[in-house]
Amino acid sequence: PGFFASLVSIVVEVLGDAFPEVRKDPQHIMDIINEEEQQFLKTLIRGRNLLNRTIDKLGGVKTLPGDVAWRLYDTYGFPIDLTQLMAEEKNLLVDMEAYEAAKQNSYILSQGKVSSKTDAINLDVHALNELQVRNVKTTNDSFKYSYVPKSTDADADYEFSECTGKILAIRTVDKFVDEVHSGDSCGLVLDKTNFYAESGGQIYDQGVFVKIGDEANEFLVDRVYNKGGYILHIGVVEGTLKVGDELSLQLDIIRRRLTMNNHSATHLLNHSLLQVLGPDTDQKGSLVVPEKLRFDFNAKAAMTIEQVAKTENYAREVVKNNIPIYAKESKLAVAKQINGLRSVFDEVYPDPVRVIAFGIPIEELEANPTGDAGVKNSVEFCGGTHLKRSGHIVDFVISSEEAIAKGIRRIVALTGPEAVKALKRTEVFEQELNNLKNLISNDKDGSQSKEFLKKIAEMTEDIAHAT
């Protein structure tokens, strides 16, 4: 075991009585810690390689560029004080002004306030035609579905299969090139990938590609799109990459796992609304990102508090029951016959089409399409990445319900750790509210009314800005 895993037995011995959960399976805890430690060490090595390469290029300059220091933090998790310490060992100073500027620019880009230099990289009709003339095959992205939970437990981790890919084409702003170098923004087309391209409301995957045999050369994947069957991975190069290079495709599995949570929960919410509001409720749009899910639907009026609560409780009950979630490709004509199956009205679906079903094998739905199983359970067309069991959602919380257009409502909901945090905040707020009620009741002469009004205003403001 690694250093941190070796401490598990001591923690179990000291805290086992207070936290009996840790006694159940200490080996499982050790396995998780070892895996995380190994992943961190790999990241640490790649970050250190970047730092060393940058220092080698400085020559007689005694200042480490601030944008490199920020990248070490943003991509590799290096705290700035660690970078400063490593720089000092080489008699260098970090350009902190440039570091802060890179930090602010990163925040602005993440909020979508300005375009990044990768926005212009695309595969238009001319680029697609060029790829076809060159006989470049489309990307096999079936590996995005290659993952399994490590157990059926509600808190199970997922294991994602390793994937390698060969660079078939490199796209810059307006042309294809054979080679790219450090700092270049470009798009890579591979023969195969396990990265999910943005589609159906689900955001793209992120991660890093590392050249097999020479880990000093890598590609930081920022966005992924499907262009006519070619999966275009857009990002920035570190080192040198050429057409024909073999890459190890390393997915940001934390981001993917949270996104899977929210996508499966979106299906669950869709079905929950159907139970509460009736069969005339239809999906009008969705957004699935790691932090939350957003679901748009038609409605004649705002949902009542009781309806929101019933929708949330229905979903939470399915999560609690930890039922299996099935995924299977089905012939479009057969799948369309499944009673109760949900689909987006104006969406064009492929044939065969992927079907996602909660609680019932899709083979059973195909064998008896007119039965009521598809009405009682969530069944939808979907090419997204989903969990294998409903319990892996962990928890489900509706954080808002509002109008976005005439006859269209929007629900924002949270799952997993975000839902748990929201529920804890709710408990704290409820306790504060009860304390305030008691104080008001005891203030017989009203001498503290101004303080109470101020506190109520503060609490109202907190609720208004809560996620």
Automatic annotation (TrEMBL):
PROSITE patterns documented for this protein: AA_TRNA_LIGASE_II_ALA
Record key words, sorted: Aminoacyl-tRNA synthetase, ATP-binding, Ligase, Nucleotide-binding, Protein biosynthesis, RNA-binding, Signal, tRNA-binding
GO CC list: mitochondrion
GO terms (BP aspect): alanyl-tRNA aminoacylation
Signal peptide range in chain numbering: 1-16
EC nos: 6.1.1.7
InterPro entries assigned: Ala-tRNA-ligase_IIc_anticod-bd, Ala-tRNA-synth_IIc_core, Ala-tRNA-synth_IIc_N, Ala-tRNA_ligase, Thr/Ala-tRNA-synth_IIc_edit, Transl_B-barrel_sf, tRNA_SAD
Record's keyword annotation contains rRNA-binding: no
Protein name, as recorded: alanine--tRNA ligase
Designated gene of the protein: AATS
